[in-house]
Amino acid sequence: MKPQTVKRVKASGLNTAAIVIFLFAVFPVYWMVATAFKPNDEIFTTRFIPFPLAPTMDHVSRVLTQGVAGHSIWRYLSNSAIVALGTVLIGAVFALLAATAVSRFRFRFRTSFLILLLIVQMVPAEALLIPLFLMVKRLGLYDQLVGLIIVNVGFTLPFAIWMLRTFVAAVPKELEEAAAIDGAGRFVTFWRVLFPLVAPGLVATSIFSFITAWNELVFALTLINDQGNYTMPVALQFFTSQRSTDWGGIMAASTLMTIPVIVFFLLVQRRMVSGLVAGAVKG
Amino acid sequence: MMAQTSTVARDGGNPSAPARRRSHQPPPRRSGLPTWVVPYVLLVPGLLVIAILLLYPLYQMVDMSFHKVGLRQIRPNPQPAEFLGAQNYSDVLASDLFWTSLRNTVVFAVVTVALTLILGTLVGLLLNKLGRKMSTFLVVGIMAAWATPPTATAIIWKWLFDSDAGVVNWSLNLLPDGLSNLIFGRSDWSGQPWLNAPSTIYVVLVIAVVWASFPFIAVSVLAGLKSIPSELYEAARVDGSSAAVTFRRITFPLLKPVFSVLLVLSIIWDFKVFTQLYVLAGGTTNREAFNLSLWAYTEAFSAPPKMGFGAAIAVILTVIMLVITAVYVRQIVRTEADVR
Fold this sequence. Notes:
The complex is a heterodimer. Chain A is mainly α.
C-alpha cells in the first residue's frame, strides 16, 4: 500500500473510533431528551422507538405546572440556582485569594496547606454530614438555603483552590514584576495584571463549583426539610413511588436540570481551550 | 493607568523590585503589609472555611464515633452522649453488613477507577490524533456526558436498564442467540431486572460512573499531551519507535504527574460514590447493595438515628481512603514541583 493510503485508512479508523465514543457519550443524554418528548404509549413499550413519533410537550408542561412534591419544577430550579450561585460567589473570592497565596508566595506551612487540601477531599461528605447536620441545626440554619450554601462552599473550596492554583502559576511572574517596576502597587498588580489573566481559569473553576453545588444531593437531602426549599436533585427523587416511576415526567425534569449545565459547559470550554497566557506574552 | 497607580500605591509593591525608571520621583510609600504576612492574610478566609466546615466536623466525627449519639442527643436541650469506648467499632466490625459494604466499596472502586482511567486515556490519545474538526466534535460529545448531573446520570441509566422498556434489554435481544448464549449463557433478555440484585445494580453503577467520569480524564490527558514538546515524538519517529514503545517511553513518563493526580482524584471520587448508588438502589432499603457511604448515611439518618454508629463507619471509610491514597499524595508532593 502507498503510504498515503495507509494514512487515509488510519485516519478513517480513528474517525470511526471517535464516532463510536461520541455515540456512547451522547446517546444517554439524547435518550433522556427523546423520552421527555414522547407520549406515554411510546415510552412504555418493548419496541425501540428512536425518536418521538408524536412529539408532545405534555411532560414538560406537567412538571412546570403541576410539578412534583407540591411545587412546580421552577421552584426547585431556582432553589438550585440560588444555592449554586451563592456557593460560586463566595467560593471564587476565597479560592482566588488562597490560590494566589500558594502559587505566588513561598511561606512556612505552604506544603502542609497543599497536602491539607488533598487530604480533606478524601473525607467522604456523608461522613462529615453527621456533625455538619448537628452544627447547622444548632446555628438555626436547618431547612434554609443559606445553610446549604455555606456547607457547599466548604466542600467545593479545597478542589477550587487546588485547580485555580495551577492557573495562577501559569501566568508568568515576569508580567507582575514588570508592572511592579512600572510602579504598580500590590493591589494594582493583582487586579490589573494577574486577575485578567487568571480570569478564564477562575471562570473554569467557578463553573466546576457551580456544577458541584447544582448537582449536590446528599446535603440537600439532609439539611432541607420543607418541600418548598428542595433543590432539583432532591425533587427528582419524588417521581418514583413504591410501585412505579413517572418516566416521562422525570426525564422532562432531568432535561430541564441538565441542559443548562451542558450549554454552560460548552460555552466555557471554548474559552478554556484558547491559550491562557499565549495572548499576553505574544501581544 | 497612571491614575490608578497613584490611588492604590499605598498597597505597596514588591520590595525587591528594581529601581524605578523615573528616579527623581520618590517611590510610593509602602504602608501596606510586609511581604511575609501577605500569603497568610490571603489564606485566612479559605483556611477558616476549611477549619470550620471540614476539620472541626472531622474531629467531631471521630469524637462521636466513641459515643452513643441518638435522638436524645440531637434534639433541643440535648442529653450528654454516653461514652462507649470502641463499642461502635466492634459493632461495625461484627456486622455482616460491614463486610458486604466493604466488598461493594472496594470492588466497585477498583473496577471503576481502572476502566475510567483506561477509557479516558485512550480517548485522550485519540483526541490528540484526530483532526481539528473531529476533535472538537468529540470533545463536545463527551462534554455532554461529563456535564450531566449525577442524579440525572443515574436516572438515565436506570431508564436505559429498565426491565421492560429499557434500551439495553432490547439491544441484548438483538444479539444472535448463539453469540448471546456463548457470552452470557442466555438469549432472552426481555424483562431482565437489572436493578433488584446488588450484583447487577453494581454493573449498571459501574457503567454509569465510567460514562460520566471518563471525559474529565480524557480532557486532562489531552491537555497533558499538548504540553509535551513535539520534538520528542519526531525523534522517536526518526528512531523508528513503535506507537506502544513511544507511549511507554515518552508519553507515560512525561504524563506521570498528570496520571497520579487523576488516579488519586478517581479513587477519591469512586470510593465514596453516593448519589448514583442512592438513585440506582432506590434509596436506603436495599441493604445488600450498600457501600460504606450509603450504610453510614442510612445508620445515621434513618429512624432510629444511630449517629455514633454511623460516624464509626465513616471514620473507617475515611481511614481506608487515607491509607490507599497516602502513597500517591506523597508522590504528588514529590513530583509536582510547585507543591514542594
